[in-house]
Amino acid sequence: MPARRELHTGRYNFLHRSWGPVEPFDDSMPQILRENGVYTHLITDHVHYWEDGGLTYHTRYQSYELVRGQEGDQWKGIVVPPADIPPKNRTDLPDQPKRMWVQDWINRGYMPTSEDLPQAKTFDLGLEFMKANHEADRWFLQIETFDPHEPFFAHQEYKELYPHPYEGPHFDWPSYGPVTESQDQVKHARFEYAALVSMCDAQLGKVLDLMDELEMWQDTMLIVCTDHGFLLGEHDWWAKNVQPWYNEVAHTPLFIWDPRSGKAGERRQSLVQMIDFPATLLEYFGQPLPSDMQGVPLGNAIANDVQVRGSALFGVHGGHVNVTDGRYVYMRAPNTPENEPLHEYT
Fold it and tell me: pTM of the prediction?
Protein backbone atom coordinates (compact mmCIF):
# COMPACT_ATOMS: atom_id res chain seq x y z
CA MET A 1 0.00 0.00 0.00
CA PRO A 2 2.88 2.48 0.48
CA ALA A 3 3.66 1.96 -3.21
CA ARG A 4 0.01 2.59 -4.12
CA ARG A 5 0.07 5.86 -2.23
CA GLU A 6 3.16 6.92 -4.16
CA LEU A 7 1.45 5.88 -7.39
CA HIS A 8 -1.50 8.11 -6.54
CA THR A 9 0.29 11.12 -5.08
CA GLY A 10 3.73 11.23 -6.69
CA ARG A 11 5.25 11.79 -3.22
CA TYR A 12 7.45 9.66 -1.01
CA ASN A 13 5.37 7.77 1.54
CA PHE A 14 7.95 6.01 3.72
CA LEU A 15 9.67 9.09 5.11
CA HIS A 16 6.71 9.98 7.32
CA ARG A 17 4.24 7.08 7.33
CA SER A 18 4.05 3.31 6.98
CA TRP A 19 1.28 1.11 5.55
CA GLY A 20 -2.03 2.93 5.20
CA PRO A 21 -4.77 4.56 3.12
CA VAL A 22 -4.95 7.60 0.89
CA GLU A 23 -5.00 10.59 3.26
CA PRO A 24 -7.78 13.22 3.11
CA PHE A 25 -5.22 15.85 2.05
CA ASP A 26 -3.69 13.72 -0.74
CA ASP A 27 -3.92 14.61 -4.41
CA SER A 28 -4.79 11.34 -6.17
CA MET A 29 -3.72 10.98 -9.80
CA PRO A 30 -6.68 8.77 -10.83
CA GLN A 31 -9.07 11.20 -9.15
CA ILE A 32 -7.47 14.21 -10.86
CA LEU A 33 -7.83 12.47 -14.22
CA ARG A 34 -11.41 11.50 -13.41
CA GLU A 35 -12.30 15.09 -12.54
CA ASN A 36 -10.80 16.34 -15.80
CA GLY A 37 -12.56 14.18 -18.35
CA VAL A 38 -10.35 11.09 -18.35
CA TYR A 39 -12.24 7.88 -17.61
CA THR A 40 -10.33 5.84 -14.98
CA HIS A 41 -10.91 2.15 -14.33
CA LEU A 42 -9.16 -0.21 -11.92
CA ILE A 43 -9.22 -4.01 -12.15
CA THR A 44 -7.38 -5.76 -9.32
CA ASP A 45 -7.14 -8.90 -7.24
CA HIS A 46 -4.98 -7.08 -4.68
CA VAL A 47 -6.79 -8.03 -1.49
CA HIS A 48 -5.33 -5.21 0.60
CA TYR A 49 -7.53 -2.71 -1.23
CA TRP A 50 -10.52 -3.93 0.78
CA GLU A 51 -8.80 -4.42 4.14
CA ASP A 52 -8.75 -2.01 7.07
CA GLY A 53 -6.00 0.51 6.48
CA GLY A 54 -5.72 -0.16 2.76
CA LEU A 55 -9.03 1.40 1.85
CA THR A 56 -9.84 4.63 -0.06
CA TYR A 57 -7.63 3.85 -3.07
CA HIS A 58 -10.02 2.04 -5.40
CA THR A 59 -12.81 4.54 -4.83
CA ARG A 60 -10.69 7.26 -6.47
CA TYR A 61 -11.31 5.64 -9.85
CA GLN A 62 -14.47 6.26 -11.87
CA SER A 63 -15.20 2.53 -11.81
CA TYR A 64 -13.47 -0.53 -10.43
CA GLU A 65 -13.68 -4.31 -10.32
CA LEU A 66 -12.32 -6.42 -7.46
CA VAL A 67 -11.41 -10.09 -7.98
CA ARG A 68 -11.39 -12.30 -4.89
CA GLY A 69 -9.22 -15.16 -3.70
CA GLN A 70 -5.57 -14.10 -3.38
CA GLU A 71 -3.21 -14.70 -0.42
CA GLY A 72 -5.62 -15.95 2.21
CA ASP A 73 -8.40 -13.58 1.20
CA GLN A 74 -11.36 -14.24 3.51
CA TRP A 75 -13.41 -15.36 0.55
CA LYS A 76 -14.95 -18.84 0.68
CA GLY A 77 -16.64 -20.00 3.86
CA ILE A 78 -15.87 -23.55 5.03
CA VAL A 79 -16.58 -24.25 8.71
CA VAL A 80 -14.47 -27.43 8.91
CA PRO A 81 -11.30 -27.01 6.81
CA PRO A 82 -10.18 -29.93 4.61
CA ALA A 83 -8.07 -32.50 6.41
CA ASP A 84 -5.44 -32.64 3.67
CA ILE A 85 -4.12 -29.09 4.09
CA PRO A 86 -0.28 -29.32 4.27
CA PRO A 87 1.39 -28.26 7.53
CA LYS A 88 1.92 -24.53 7.84
CA ASN A 89 5.46 -23.50 6.94
CA ARG A 90 5.12 -19.82 7.85
CA THR A 91 6.47 -18.78 11.24
CA ASP A 92 6.76 -15.00 10.97
CA LEU A 93 3.56 -14.26 12.94
CA PRO A 94 1.77 -16.44 15.51
CA ASP A 95 -1.89 -16.35 14.45
CA GLN A 96 -2.45 -14.40 11.23
CA PRO A 97 -0.30 -16.69 9.01
CA LYS A 98 -2.12 -19.76 10.34
CA ARG A 99 -5.48 -18.22 9.48
CA MET A 100 -4.24 -17.03 6.10
CA TRP A 101 -2.66 -20.42 5.37
CA VAL A 102 -5.87 -22.34 6.03
CA GLN A 103 -8.02 -19.80 4.18
CA ASP A 104 -5.66 -19.81 1.21
CA TRP A 105 -5.99 -23.58 0.90
CA ILE A 106 -9.75 -23.32 1.13
CA ASN A 107 -9.68 -20.75 -1.68
CA ARG A 108 -7.43 -22.97 -3.82
CA GLY A 109 -10.14 -25.61 -3.77
CA TYR A 110 -12.28 -23.26 -5.87
CA MET A 111 -9.56 -22.79 -8.51
CA PRO A 112 -9.26 -26.14 -10.33
CA THR A 113 -7.76 -24.64 -13.52
CA SER A 114 -5.45 -21.76 -14.40
CA GLU A 115 -8.43 -19.86 -15.82
CA ASP A 116 -10.01 -19.91 -12.34
CA LEU A 117 -7.08 -18.11 -10.68
CA PRO A 118 -7.59 -14.47 -9.66
CA GLN A 119 -4.73 -13.36 -11.89
CA ALA A 120 -6.35 -14.86 -15.00
CA LYS A 121 -9.73 -13.35 -14.12
CA THR A 122 -8.13 -9.94 -13.58
CA PHE A 123 -6.44 -9.99 -16.98
CA ASP A 124 -9.61 -11.27 -18.65
CA LEU A 125 -11.51 -8.29 -17.26
CA GLY A 126 -8.76 -6.02 -18.50
CA LEU A 127 -9.07 -7.46 -22.00
CA GLU A 128 -12.84 -7.01 -21.77
CA PHE A 129 -12.41 -3.31 -20.97
CA MET A 130 -9.94 -2.83 -23.81
CA LYS A 131 -12.22 -4.49 -26.35
CA ALA A 132 -15.19 -2.40 -25.21
CA ASN A 133 -13.35 0.93 -25.12
CA HIS A 134 -10.43 0.85 -27.56
CA GLU A 135 -12.18 3.21 -29.98
CA ALA A 136 -12.84 5.79 -27.25
CA ASP A 137 -10.36 8.51 -26.29
CA ARG A 138 -9.02 9.65 -22.92
CA TRP A 139 -9.17 6.69 -20.60
CA PHE A 140 -6.79 5.17 -18.08
CA LEU A 141 -6.93 1.46 -17.28
CA GLN A 142 -5.00 -0.06 -14.36
CA ILE A 143 -4.74 -3.86 -14.57
CA GLU A 144 -3.22 -4.80 -11.23
CA THR A 145 -2.50 -8.38 -10.22
CA PHE A 146 -1.15 -9.56 -6.89
CA ASP A 147 0.97 -12.25 -8.59
CA PRO A 148 3.79 -13.10 -8.55
CA HIS A 149 3.40 -12.29 -4.86
CA GLU A 150 3.58 -15.19 -2.45
CA PRO A 151 2.10 -17.79 -2.14
CA PHE A 152 3.64 -19.01 -5.40
CA PHE A 153 0.55 -20.90 -6.55
CA ALA A 154 0.37 -21.91 -10.22
CA HIS A 155 -1.10 -24.90 -12.00
CA GLN A 156 0.68 -27.87 -13.49
CA GLU A 157 1.11 -26.53 -17.03
CA TYR A 158 3.40 -23.82 -15.65
CA LYS A 159 5.16 -26.05 -13.13
CA GLU A 160 6.04 -28.41 -15.97
CA LEU A 161 8.18 -25.66 -17.50
CA TYR A 162 10.61 -26.16 -14.61
CA PRO A 163 11.00 -29.90 -13.91
CA HIS A 164 13.22 -30.63 -10.93
CA PRO A 165 13.63 -33.42 -8.37
CA TYR A 166 12.09 -32.59 -5.03
CA GLU A 167 10.81 -34.82 -2.23
CA GLY A 168 10.53 -32.32 0.57
CA PRO A 169 7.45 -30.83 2.24
CA HIS A 170 5.06 -28.54 0.40
CA PHE A 171 6.77 -25.16 0.17
CA ASP A 172 5.48 -22.22 -1.86
CA TRP A 173 5.09 -19.51 0.81
CA PRO A 174 8.40 -18.39 2.40
CA SER A 175 8.52 -16.51 5.68
CA TYR A 176 9.86 -12.97 5.93
CA GLY A 177 13.29 -13.42 7.48
CA PRO A 178 16.50 -15.44 7.38
CA VAL A 179 16.64 -18.65 5.34
CA THR A 180 16.37 -21.65 7.65
CA GLU A 181 15.23 -24.17 5.01
CA SER A 182 17.39 -26.67 3.16
CA GLN A 183 18.94 -25.79 -0.20
CA ASP A 184 16.54 -28.24 -1.84
CA GLN A 185 13.62 -26.28 -0.41
CA VAL A 186 15.14 -22.99 -1.54
CA LYS A 187 15.61 -24.31 -5.08
CA HIS A 188 12.08 -25.69 -5.08
CA ALA A 189 10.60 -22.35 -3.96
CA ARG A 190 12.50 -20.62 -6.76
CA PHE A 191 11.02 -23.01 -9.31
CA GLU A 192 7.54 -22.46 -7.88
CA TYR A 193 8.14 -18.74 -8.23
CA ALA A 194 9.37 -19.18 -11.80
CA ALA A 195 6.20 -21.07 -12.68
CA LEU A 196 4.07 -18.21 -11.36
CA VAL A 197 6.16 -15.61 -13.21
CA SER A 198 5.66 -17.60 -16.40
CA MET A 199 1.91 -17.40 -15.89
CA CYS A 200 2.24 -13.63 -15.43
CA ASP A 201 4.21 -13.50 -18.68
CA ALA A 202 1.51 -15.41 -20.53
CA GLN A 203 -1.23 -13.12 -19.21
CA LEU A 204 0.69 -9.96 -20.07
CA GLY A 205 1.23 -11.42 -23.54
CA LYS A 206 -2.54 -11.40 -24.04
CA VAL A 207 -2.58 -7.65 -23.45
CA LEU A 208 0.24 -7.07 -25.93
CA ASP A 209 -1.45 -9.30 -28.52
CA LEU A 210 -4.74 -7.45 -28.12
CA MET A 211 -2.98 -4.11 -28.55
CA ASP A 212 -1.59 -5.52 -31.80
CA GLU A 213 -5.01 -6.76 -32.91
CA LEU A 214 -6.81 -3.51 -32.09
CA GLU A 215 -3.96 -1.32 -33.43
CA MET A 216 -3.67 0.55 -30.15
CA TRP A 217 0.05 1.29 -30.19
CA GLN A 218 -0.30 4.54 -32.13
CA ASP A 219 -2.13 6.42 -29.38
CA THR A 220 -1.91 4.33 -26.19
CA MET A 221 0.76 4.53 -23.50
CA LEU A 222 1.68 1.27 -21.77
CA ILE A 223 3.49 1.10 -18.43
CA VAL A 224 4.49 -2.28 -16.99
CA CYS A 225 5.83 -2.01 -13.45
CA THR A 226 5.76 -3.54 -9.99
CA ASP A 227 5.91 -2.30 -6.42
CA HIS A 228 8.88 -4.24 -5.03
CA GLY A 229 11.13 -7.23 -5.55
CA PHE A 230 11.50 -10.36 -3.44
CA LEU A 231 14.53 -12.16 -2.06
CA LEU A 232 14.43 -15.87 -2.91
CA GLY A 233 17.29 -16.92 -0.67
CA GLU A 234 19.77 -14.36 -2.00
CA HIS A 235 21.92 -12.94 0.81
CA ASP A 236 20.46 -15.80 2.94
CA TRP A 237 17.13 -13.95 3.25
CA TRP A 238 13.54 -14.39 2.21
CA ALA A 239 11.25 -11.59 1.06
CA LYS A 240 11.62 -7.94 2.13
CA ASN A 241 11.25 -5.27 4.85
CA VAL A 242 13.45 -6.85 7.52
CA GLN A 243 16.87 -6.95 5.88
CA PRO A 244 18.74 -4.14 4.06
CA TRP A 245 17.13 -3.06 0.78
CA TYR A 246 19.22 -5.03 -1.67
CA ASN A 247 18.87 -4.51 -5.42
CA GLU A 248 16.74 -7.65 -5.73
CA VAL A 249 14.06 -5.81 -3.74
CA ALA A 250 14.64 -2.16 -4.68
CA HIS A 251 15.63 -2.24 -8.37
CA THR A 252 12.36 -3.25 -9.98
CA PRO A 253 11.43 -4.02 -13.61
CA LEU A 254 10.00 -1.18 -15.68
CA PHE A 255 8.84 -1.09 -19.30
CA ILE A 256 7.21 2.00 -20.83
CA TRP A 257 5.86 2.52 -24.33
CA ASP A 258 5.17 6.17 -25.15
CA PRO A 259 3.52 6.56 -28.57
CA ARG A 260 4.67 10.19 -28.78
CA SER A 261 8.32 9.17 -29.17
CA GLY A 262 7.79 5.60 -30.35
CA LYS A 263 11.03 4.34 -28.83
CA ALA A 264 11.18 0.54 -28.55
CA GLY A 265 13.81 -2.08 -27.84
CA GLU A 266 16.04 0.40 -26.03
CA ARG A 267 17.28 0.76 -22.47
CA ARG A 268 17.51 3.97 -20.48
CA GLN A 269 20.02 4.85 -17.78
CA SER A 270 18.01 7.69 -16.23
CA LEU A 271 17.18 7.17 -12.57
CA VAL A 272 13.39 7.02 -12.18
CA GLN A 273 10.96 5.97 -9.46
CA MET A 274 7.32 5.12 -8.89
CA ILE A 275 6.62 8.72 -7.83
CA ASP A 276 7.32 9.64 -11.48
CA PHE A 277 4.49 7.49 -12.87
CA PRO A 278 1.57 9.72 -11.75
CA ALA A 279 3.43 12.78 -13.03
CA THR A 280 3.99 11.02 -16.35
CA LEU A 281 0.31 10.11 -16.68
CA LEU A 282 -0.97 13.56 -15.73
CA GLU A 283 1.37 15.18 -18.24
CA TYR A 284 0.36 12.65 -20.92
CA PHE A 285 -3.29 13.68 -20.49
CA GLY A 286 -2.42 17.39 -20.46
CA GLN A 287 -3.02 18.01 -16.75
CA PRO A 288 -0.90 20.28 -14.51
CA LEU A 289 0.97 18.61 -11.67
CA PRO A 290 -0.03 19.32 -8.05
CA SER A 291 2.45 21.67 -6.39
CA ASP A 292 3.45 19.06 -3.79
CA MET A 293 4.18 16.30 -6.33
CA GLN A 294 7.82 15.19 -6.08
CA GLY A 295 7.77 12.99 -9.18
CA VAL A 296 8.47 14.31 -12.67
CA PRO A 297 7.15 13.34 -16.13
CA LEU A 298 9.29 10.80 -17.97
CA GLY A 299 8.50 11.71 -21.57
CA ASN A 300 11.97 13.16 -22.25
CA ALA A 301 13.72 10.35 -20.39
CA ILE A 302 11.87 7.83 -22.55
CA ALA A 303 12.55 9.72 -25.77
CA ASN A 304 16.17 10.73 -25.26
CA ASP A 305 17.35 9.36 -21.89
CA VAL A 306 17.26 12.87 -20.40
CA GLN A 307 18.16 12.63 -16.70
CA VAL A 308 15.25 13.62 -14.47
CA ARG A 309 17.04 13.46 -11.08
CA GLY A 310 20.51 13.12 -9.67
CA SER A 311 19.51 10.85 -6.81
CA ALA A 312 16.64 8.75 -5.51
CA LEU A 313 15.42 7.76 -2.06
CA PHE A 314 14.09 4.34 -1.10
CA GLY A 315 13.49 2.29 2.02
CA VAL A 316 10.80 1.52 4.57
CA HIS A 317 9.22 3.53 7.37
CA GLY A 318 11.09 2.86 10.61
CA GLY A 319 13.84 0.91 8.85
CA HIS A 320 16.54 1.58 6.30
CA VAL A 321 16.44 4.91 4.49
CA ASN A 322 18.66 4.80 1.41
CA VAL A 323 19.87 7.17 -1.29
CA THR A 324 21.40 6.25 -4.64
CA ASP A 325 22.77 8.09 -7.64
CA GLY A 326 22.26 5.00 -9.78
CA ARG A 327 25.82 3.80 -9.18
CA TYR A 328 26.35 3.80 -5.42
CA VAL A 329 23.94 3.35 -2.53
CA TYR A 330 24.21 4.89 0.91
CA MET A 331 22.21 2.84 3.42
CA ARG A 332 21.15 4.43 6.69
CA ALA A 333 19.83 1.95 9.25
CA PRO A 334 18.18 2.63 12.63
CA ASN A 335 20.51 2.82 15.62
CA THR A 336 18.65 -0.02 17.31
CA PRO A 337 15.95 -2.47 16.24
CA GLU A 338 13.48 -0.61 18.46
CA ASN A 339 14.12 2.72 16.66
CA GLU A 340 12.02 4.73 19.10
CA PRO A 341 10.44 7.21 19.36
CA LEU A 342 8.98 6.68 15.89
CA HIS A 343 6.15 8.95 14.81
CA GLU A 344 3.73 8.47 11.93
CA TYR A 345 2.39 11.64 10.34
CA THR A 346 -1.09 11.26 8.86
Answer: 0.95
